[in-house]
Each structure stands twice: as C-alpha cells, then as structure tokens.
Design brief:
Layout (H helix, E strand, L loop, with lengths): L5 E2 L10 H5 L2 H7 L4 E5 L4 E3 L7 E5 L4 E7 L5 E7 L19 E6 L1 E7 H10 L1 H27 L2 H14 L6 E2 L3 H8 L3 H13 L3 E4 L2 E4 L2 H7 L3 H12 L7 H5 L1
Length: 254
C-alpha cells in the first residue's frame, strides 16, 4: 500500500486510539511530534509475511485490522482483530524483523502511524512507556491464545456470534457492522457457503439481518447467548492488565 503520511499538527489533541490515550502526558509528548495521520480503506495491505516491520499502525475510531495466516489449501484464516484498543507492527521488537502474518485493514477509517525507530527511542527514555507497550503485547498474546482455544473447541455458530460482537465492540455502531458473508467466512476459516448458512439460521431466529455489505444485529442479547465466552475472557484480561483500553459500550458512549 502506498501511503502519503501527514504529520499530526495539533499534538495536544490525541487520536481516537485507546492505547495512545492510555499514555501519561509525558510519555505521549515523547511520540506526539512523530505521529502521522492517515486514512485507510478496507482491504488495504499493511504487511505481507516476510516484510520488514518499519511502521507501527494505530487504528483509530471504527478502523479495524486483521491478522491473517495463509494455510496450504490457499485459504486465509483470521487469527485476531485489532481496533482502537491497540496497534500492529513493532510493538515489542525494535523493528526491521520480518512480519509473520498478513496484516490487512478490515474496516477502513482513520489511522495514526509511527516509525518503529521513533517508538524505540521513546521507550529508551521512559520506563513507563515501555511498560504500557509490554502490557499491550501481553494482551495481544492473550487474544492469540484464546483464539487458538476457541477455534479448537467452539462451534461455527458460537464463533460467528463472537466475531460479530468483537467487531461491534470496536466500531462506533452498536447495531451493525460492515461485514460481508465472504469476510465472515475468512474470519471463521470456512467456505463462504457455510458462513451464509449460519447467517441464514441467525436470520430465521431474528437475531441478525443483512443489508448489502452489512450485518445488522436485531437482538443483541440473543446474539450474546449464542456466543462463546472468549470475548469476555479477553476483555477481562485487558481490564486487569490495561484498564480502560479495550473498547466497551461505556467507552463508546463516553
């Protein structure tokens, strides 16, 4: 993806990214002059496997990024979603290491970028900033662990409900997400026809409805009942490690 970065002109106005907003004023001041605002579209590629990781990408607002792992039959399987609670690329390493997954923009919108070298320089100057990013890396690892367990033990229906709820928590719309049947199939690692059958079953039960390119939630409580508890487990860990960073209904309306 070819990107034209624009410097953040007003460093006092923090971007709508919960991880950046979690930093104290002194730590944020270390990186604020180097943050660059950008807009990304759905399906924009951030990294391919093997690419040098040179830039940290912070999704803002409703923007959402997915980590995809390609398997031998040609399918891409979603591992985790990252929204305004976090960032992708060079979180722990010093950068210039090869990316392992393909990282793609799932829902387009505003982003903030930061060169890995600038982040590393700021970490060298602040123990508390290093601590926040190390804690976030721990939270991201917990998502990966939980996703692995979820894929191994829970039904397609449970995982469908979980992914829709996870996407909704990271967007500004509490009733709908811009998700196609094909995108949902990728999230679940199944064929499109299978994903469509699951959606049709949810529609028959009046849990969901569909519009062109959108899934609309008609009964949020029923959707939660059909979901596994993996989202809640991840959210609980986020709250213990980085309180207030994971998006919730409370933070969306505040």
């Amino acid at each position: 993806m070819t990107t034209r970065y624009r410097p953040v002109l007003d460093v006092s106005a923090r971007p709508y990214n919960n991880l950046l907003r979690r930093l104290n004023d002194d730590d944020y001041a270390l990186i604020a002059p180097h943050l660059m605002r950008d807009e990304a579209n759905a399906n924009d590629l951030l990294y391919n496997p093997g690419d040098d990781v040179r830039m940290v990408h912070f999704p803002c607002g409703p923007s959402l990024v997915s980590h995809l792992v390609s398997i031998e039959d040609g399918r891409d399987v979603e591992t985790i979603l990252v929204g305004r609670e976090g960032a992708v690329g060079g979180i722990v390493s010093e950068g210039y290491l090869p990316a392992y997954t393909r990282i793609v923009v799932k829902f387009g919108g505003p982003f903030v970028r930061l060169h890995v070298s600038k982040l590393e320089a700021a970490k060298m100057n602040s123990k508390t900033l290093r601590n926040v990013f190390a804690r976030y890396a721990d939270c991201m690892l917990s998502q990966i662990f939980q996703s692995t367990a979820c894929n191994a033990t829970h039904s397609i229906e449970q995982r469908t409900a979980k992914w829709i709820i996870a996407a909704m928590e990271r967007t500004d719309d509490l009733e709908a997400v811009p998700l196609t049947h094909e995108q949902l199939a990728t999230l679940l690692g199944v064929g499109r026809s299978y994903a469509s059958r699951v959606i049709q079953a949810f529609r028959a039960d009046e849990v969901l409805d569909t519009r062109r390119g959108w899934i609309v939630v008609r009964n949020r409580d029923a959707l939660k009942i059909r979901s596994c508890l993996c989202n809640e487990a991840v959210k609980t860990h986020f709250e213990e490690v980085l309180r207030g960073v994971y998006p919730t209904e409370e933070t969306q309306t505040s």
